[in-house]
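Any chance you could type out some protein's one-letter sequence along with its backbone structure tokens so I can compare the two?
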Amino acid sequence: MKLVGIPDNIMQNIFKEYNTTKEYGSGIGLTSSYNSIVSDFLGEMECKTEKGKGTIFTIILPLNKNKKKKSKL
């Protein structure tokens, strides 16, 4: 397994819609995951990467099922 991490120029756009590094990628996978976790489940999704070591995605979901989404207004 090759562990390389995500370069800085790609990392800054990792959760942006239609961003892909693949020839045939759609660029909606991480965006969809991020939006669902944050919007639907009121969670958090983080990405940490280190060149030559690899990348870790962390998903944090709240335990309180009754928690309501805070309004941004």
